Amino acid sequence: MAMRQTPLTCSGHTRPVVDLAFSGITPYGYFLISACKDGKPMLRQGDTGDWIGTFLGHKGAVWGATLNTDATKAATAAADFTAKVWDAVSGDEVLTLAHKHIVKSVSFTQDSNCLLTGGNDKVLRIYDLSKPEAAPLEIPGHTSAIKKALWCNGDQQILSAAEDKTIRLWDRTSMEAVKTLSFDTSVSSMEYVADGEILVITYGKTIAFYNALSLDLIKTVEAPASINSASLHPEKDFFVAGGDDFKLYKYDYSTKEELESYKGHFGPVHCVRFSPDGELYASGSEDGTLRLWQTAVGKTYGLWKCVLPGNAQILRFPTQDSPEIKA
Q1: Rounded to 5 degrees, what angle do the CA atoms 95, 99, 101 make?
Q2: pTM for this one?
Q3: What is the mean pLDDT of the chain?
Q4: CATH number of the domain at 8-294, please?
Q5: Are 278 and 250 in contact (CB under 8 A)?
Q6: Which residue in 32, 41, 76, 312 has the fewest CB atoms around it within 10 Å?
């Protein structure tokens, strides 16, 4: 009998959830941060969705959020023309980095010493977090707002996607663009998978996979609806995608076959990400919720309990609703 997918719903946000990021696996498990237009990014336990804390301090919509590998630092990008760095253990604000326009993207280097930002002023910036008073390195070149910027190739290169319908690969040392991809429409999302150096991008109804270093196309998959985000499983067996039709789609990476599709949200899906262990994927939506979905439906994991006396079913235990308290 086919098992039915039962997502865990994480409430607490009051506006659309527009970005998600997982930490690496730490001695305390792994963690999930969400960016929301309510201006209050939230930290959760990654495998259960349980609320840990809310980072309070932004005065506008938060467009981007990330955690460093060991979940000790968080960074957020917001419409109040700032990026902020936070102590992810105490919830305290560590740094406010002033920009000239809305900030859309933040990304830590692997050693957590530098922060990359990008946004509506079309400039990439690299901040040395050990020298917060120092001016950032600036990389101009895009002709429209930057939507996403990520470190790649051991932090020696940078990938950026912008509303000028390009993705550019930059050399960190020379700060010059070494490769450019051009599209007929603006790229809606970009994920970098370091293990395998794969770049996952979405535009229109297309999910595309590129070699992140050469920017050579590996494969494309056409979805039934406009796609806002896609994520590749850590073992590269599957990928998931979500978009304007409120659904989550799961595909076989090798064959490109659609394996499953689920409608759980009550609005377009803005972001989807696999957990670092690949056991679940998280989605964020216009409906203001995050949902956690099992990669292998029916497996006992996190708050999912598989019960098999007679008919198989999944029992879901409610996640903790989040009062508004500083982390």
Answers
A1: 140
A2: 0.92
A3: 92
A4: 2.130.10.10
A5: no
A6: 312
